[in-house]
Structure to design on (267 residues):
């Protein structure tokens, strides 16, 4: 049996990696739980001041609470299995989808309607992210970019899901062949608070874009920093594999610097 080239192995590994939105459904549900807890705590607290303001505030909170609960219901479409792909769910009252594409189309329809019905709520903003995943998988890259743009515009800079949205934005631009915009998205992702899940992936994607543009020496410089900046991360492992491929192609790859030694308290 002929051994697979290293580049093909990496390509297959990347395809097996979680996509830009894998955690979106779970993260959205986590947000709903946190939001509902907040609402439960704050439901009995009225801001002192004008009666009109107090009533308006309460109505707004009730609207957000209702929207968050309905989003939880809308997201259950993501749990419906696909025939031949997911294990059957005997407890499900809904039939399985015939194809992954059919499920994605239903996700887009359901969440698009939800966002229109609850426009202006945080839940509607959150729904834009799983909708974008489905649009991306359907090859509707412009629609995915629009949904991602709505999400990024509607959430604060420190939102935990911004990094996932920026990664998805980069993927969508990459799929359209717009490497410059993809690079810009990945650079923004690099600056965002990625958390452990996506640590270093902004740098890794930036290096990929440089390689696609024929800037392999520059890409090697970026890749060589990832194992030091983000040791023991998925990005570090992929960067190491990518550097090995570049080295086999004659690119001079810098040796990654060792991670800084942990300091101990002499006292």
């Amino acid at each position: 049996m002929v051994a697979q080239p290293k580049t093909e192995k990496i390509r297959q590994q990347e395809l097996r990696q979680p996509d830009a939105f894998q955690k979106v459904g779970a993260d959205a549900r986590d947000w709903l739980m946190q939001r509902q807890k907040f609402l439960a705590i704050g439901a009995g607290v009225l801001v002192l001041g004008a009666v009109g303001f107090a009533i308006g505030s309460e109505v707004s909170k009730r609207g957000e609470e209702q929207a968050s609960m309905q989003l939880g219901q809308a997201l259950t479409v993501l749990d419906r299995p696909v025939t031949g792909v997911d294990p059957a769910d005997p407890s499900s009252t809904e039939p399985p989808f015939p194809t992954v594409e059919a499920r994605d189309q239903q996700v887009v329809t359901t969440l698009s309607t939800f966002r229109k019905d609850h426009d202006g709520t945080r839940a509607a903003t959150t729904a834009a992210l799983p909708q974008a995943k489905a649009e991306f998988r359907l090859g509707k890259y412009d629609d995915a970019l629009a949904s991602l743009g709505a999400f990024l515009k509607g959430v604060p800079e420190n939102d935990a899901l911004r990094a996932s949205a920026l990664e998805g934005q980069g993927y969508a631009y990459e799929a359209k062949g717009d490497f410059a915009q993809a690079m810009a998205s990945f650079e923004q992702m690099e600056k965002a608070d990625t958390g452990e899940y996506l640590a270093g992936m902004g740098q890794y994607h930036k290096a990929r874009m440089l390689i696609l543009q024929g800037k392999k020496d520059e890409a090697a410089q970026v890749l060589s920093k990832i194992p030091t900046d983000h040791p023991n991360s998925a990005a570090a492992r992929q960067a190491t594999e990518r550097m090995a491929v570049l080295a086999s192609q004659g690119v001079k790859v810098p040796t990654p610097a060792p991670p800084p030694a942990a300091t101990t308290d002499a006292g």
